[in-house]
Amino acid sequence: MDGLTEAKLRALAGERSFRRGLGYVDAVSGVEVGDGWIRASVRGTERYEVELLLGARRKPAGTCDCPYGQEGNFCKHLVALGLTVIGQEASFSRRRESARDRERGLNAWLTGLSREDLLVLVREEMAEDRQLRRRLELRAASARGDLAEVRSRVRDLLDIGPFAQYGFVEYADARAYADQAGQAVHAIRSLTASGRAADAMALARETIGTLAGVVENIDDADGRLGQIGVDLADVHRESCGAARPDPEELAHWLVTHALDDAADLTGIDPLDYEEVLGERGMAALNRRVVDAWQANRTGWAEKHLMQRLAKSGRDIDTVIAVHAADLAPNGHTHLLIARELDTAGRPAEALEWAERGIRETEDLADVDTALVDHLADRYTQADRFADAVTLRRDHFTARRTLLTYRQLRTAAETAACWPSERENALARLRAEAERTDTQSTPVLVDILLDDKDIDSAWQAARKHGAHDGQWLTLADHSRPTRPADALGVYLSLAAPLTRQTGNHAYEQLVSLLLSIRDCHHRLGTPDDFTAYVTDLRAAQKRKRNPMRLLDDHDL
User: Fold this and answer.
1) What is the pTM for the complete model shown?
2) pLDDT digits (tens, 9 = 90+) for 213-239
3) Which of 10, 54, 336, 484 has the fewest CB within 10 Å, making it most exposed?
4) Buried-exposed string 282-293: b where 16+ CB fall within 10 A, e elsewhere
């Protein structure tokens, strides 16, 4: 049905939920089929309501009110319904066609009713459904432009009280709250349609403020309130386009809103109002943005708004001035300025800012590594290979890691000076290791391994120590040429694993045993390995999993 398959269900749910869903197929009941949807109840710990959404042009999806489903997951109950659909595909296709026939029949019946009969029907339904009555009352107030009534209803719709427990709306209730908030958006939009655009604009602003004030108290994991915020922004912009408010007042509100936390909810961009603001409004907007930034040059919102305006006018110097007024101590802002200047076709200035960022960073161990990469690339592109090596050397000296060593190696190889650079770098690391510098010792071993200098890596590990992972890497690299040394490492690493439990430990142990066997084979001492494994089996005989793994690998 619409291409639904077990493979698609498994991909949506994951292997675990899919397997569990197999056991719930018989618990599916009360199936209803519509055009693009199938609903049912599934008996689990409780009875859960499940809806599967299907369509020829979309990926299957669904909702379930079980705890796992309410977190947005495709749960085992949805799997059970999907399997039911697949198993009864012919029946469901007929039932869906029947549902379409019922829908067409209902539409035909409603179309044939007289105005008076429709009114009677709606009144009867309103008497039975309180929520329907409230929705229709709100629409009526919006249509007749009753601002006081609409405002009152909107405030009621945005009240989290009926949904909250201890002041917080949980995920399970957030959808219902978002549906109510959506009704508020529709009501405000209707005011514009009824010729009350100025009232709609004012009410949209009030609603944005109200919703922003409660959104932190709602579990909006699905992002429904975020969409409500976007819809409110659209309604506000539409109402401004119809009402044509005073440009300077609108500019003032837009800047105030952009600097407020409510901007995170709506995503309103003042520049989207350029046509409504006109020349006078845009001038006022620019003045207010500049004033806000000058009053708080380190504020994120102020900087973002100032840069947004400057970039829209292609004023690169203002963009740089905003960045330069709040330079980060690690050179990150210098990098942003360099990239802006590169994009603007001003490479000399870009290079100067990048070099300044390196100079002004007090400790290169804390520098933004992207700045080092940027400047090294620029040096290389300009054939300034010696400068690239110096930069990479200084960075490696400050931050002794395998990555910075590799970057130094690349730069020095390009400059044809790697042998001497390598000798100096290793000399510094060895000198630091002699002073029992805990940072240098493991890095030294890693670097020697990366250079494939296995003999030197063994010497460093024996003299200064190494961690288990490094010893294992050394042994793996050395097994063909130094099987005795490798054997000692493997036996040392295996010993503590024989006292541990758990499949991960058992798998590690077996892997080491295979390496130990290979070492004994190379040394010509297979009988020693047989004796070792015999003793190990005797000690592990009560543990089924390790014994099974030993058998699987013929150990």
Assistant:
1) 0.67
2) 999 999 887 788 888 999 999 999 999
3) 484
4) bebbbebbbebb
